[in-house]
Design a protein that fits this description.
Length: 487
């Protein structure tokens, strides 16, 4: 077979053999498979540099081709493409001494010169036919068309000229109509003819209206001048970097150009870094431009980050993301927990915020079941105390709880807490103490309990007396147990 060898590798072009496109033996090979072959060919140089070459035969080999193709596109089933290439004898493989490790070889397609030459002849014939057709169209005399057809075509072209140049002077339009339409009943006009007629009217009459190209509302003369300055007039940025940004981004930089120029010379701003940030942050273009404009407006030159504008820009993006994430959570709580009073909605929102930061997997489970929690609260018909709801909701985020159904777990949590609340205080303490003694916590688990308890100390002032005593008791017991574990 025609394997790739060292002398085939040093090419600076993306290679797609004509035989893959023209040879009949490859006419059923899919376009995706042809592109996959071209990608693997482009990587042959890197395989050689990695030392993946057989010294005895000089054949270049590689491993796991699907992984290389996945880096280019994960939307295509690349494993099927490899099977297709193997079926058409464009890729080969062999086993190695290491189990499950397979060597792959890319195969050069056979070049059928006669077939390629035949295809060129067909293309030349097609070009000649197209030339003849175009010549036949241009050779037709306008007189062959009916007068009413010629008049309509000329009128449509004149209307297009008037719209394009935004002509509004009635006398000018009337005279132009007379010259172009009335005086040429048998001649098809061109845009050049109408433009020349317009210039003659302007030069020989007292009418003074020069043509103006109609412009979109977003691109008036001021914006066109601004873009022209950013692309051709300014001298602080290289044109190759300017071309990395669209017109809207350039207009934003023009709007803040004094600041941009100052930051550039102070080594706090770089177009190349901004381009990298645009790619890295994965923002839509509209969102990128909105946040860039906001960052320029808010950046404080006197107290700006010494690291530069780009650190500040990333903070703006991050803060905007956090704000939108919290706003989305607020909307979820407001709309899905509509049966809850406002103070319980506020409580739920705060707990969900903490869970989003520290327990994201459980957060997703709970946020997708907020309507279930709302229904359970409605079923209680106003008989569920706030403290019971809050304790049951907190249990949804206990790390030692496995939740398979939020509906069942939350209902059971309410029942358990209500039963526990109905017991005398001393009995509850004794029961909790016995439970803790039965559990064999590791040192890490006790540390987590102690840390979680200390994190809640800031809100102890809002707890009831019973809850305060419970936290104090838990704290003392946990500290004693932690000392025992350390000893």
């Amino acid at each position: 077979m025609n394997y790739f060898r060292e002398q085939d590798l040093w090419s600076h072009h993306f290679y797609l053999p004509k035989s893959l496109m023209l040879d009949e033996q490859f006419q059923d090979l899919s376009a995706e498979a042809k592109i996959a072959w071209s990608i693997l060919y482009d990587l042959q140089t890197f395989f050689y540099q990695a030392g993946w070459i057989e010294p005895e035969s000089g054949r270049v080999y590689f491993y796991h081709p699907q992984r290389f193709l996945d880096q280019i596109s994960k939307d295509v089933i690349n494993l099927e493409l490899l099977k297709e290439l193997h079926r058409f004898r464009l890729i080969d493989y062999s086993t190695t001494e290491i189990p499950k490790l397979v060597r792959y070889y890319l195969i050069k397609p056979n070049m059928d010169e006669s077939r390629i030459h035949h295809s060129r002849q067909d293309q030349e014939k097609l070009i000649r036919k197209m030339d003849e057709y175009i010549t036949s169209l241009t050779a037709k005399e306008p007189e062959e068309l009916p007068k009413d057809v010629i008049r309509k075509k000329n009128a449509d072209m004149l209307k297009a000229f008037i719209r394009k140049h935004n002509l509004k002077h009635d006398d000018l339009v009337s005279e132009l109509y007379t010259v172009c339409i009335m005086q040429n009943p048998k001649k098809l006009l061109t845009m050049d003819y109408i433009s020349e007629a317009y210039q003659n009217i302007i030069n020989t009459s007292s009418i003074n209206e020069m043509p103006k190209e109609s412009t979109d509302g977003d691109y008036d003369e001021e914006k066109i001048a601004a873009l022209n300055y950013m692309k051709n007039g300014q001298r602080i940025f290289d044109q190759s970097l300017i071309r990395l940004f669209n017109d809207d981004t350039l207009l934003i930089m023009y709007k803040h150009f004094d600041l941009v120029e100052y930051l550039h010379y102070a080594n706090r701003f770089s177009l190349s870094i901004l381009s990298q940030q645009k790619t890295h942050l994965k923002l839509t273009m509209d969102r990128f431009n909105m946040l860039l404009d906001q960052s320029f407006s808010l950046y404080d030159v006197e107290n700006g980050e010494m690291a530069g504008f780009h650190t500040f820009f990333e903070k703006i993006v991050e803060n905007q993301y956090i704000f939108e994430r919290e706003q989305k959570l607020q909307d979820e709580v407001t709309h899905k927990l509509f049966a809850l009073p406002d103070h319980l909605k506020e409580f739920t929102y705060k707990e969900m915020k903490k869970a989003l930061e520290h327990f994201p997997e459980r957060y997703e489970l709970v946020v997708n079941n907020l309507r279930v929690i709302n229904t359970i609260y409605q079923d209680q018909e106003g008989q569920l105390p706030d403290t019971i709801f809050e304790k049951a909701f907190r249990r949804l985020f206990m790390k030692d709880q496995e939740i398979y159904s939020v509906n069942g777990f939350f209902k059971n949590a309410i029942v358990w807490i209500q039963e526990d609340e109905s017991k005398p205080k001393k009995a509850r303490k004794q029961e909790n103490r016995e439970k803790d003694e039965k559990k064999d916590y590791s040192k890490q688990e006790w540390l987590e309990k102690l840390v979680n308890m200390k994190e809640t100390e800031g809100s102890i002032a809002n707890l009831s007396e019973e809850e305060k005593e419970e936290y104090e008791r838990m704290g003392e017991e946990l500290e004693e147990l932690l000392k025992d574990l350390e000893d």
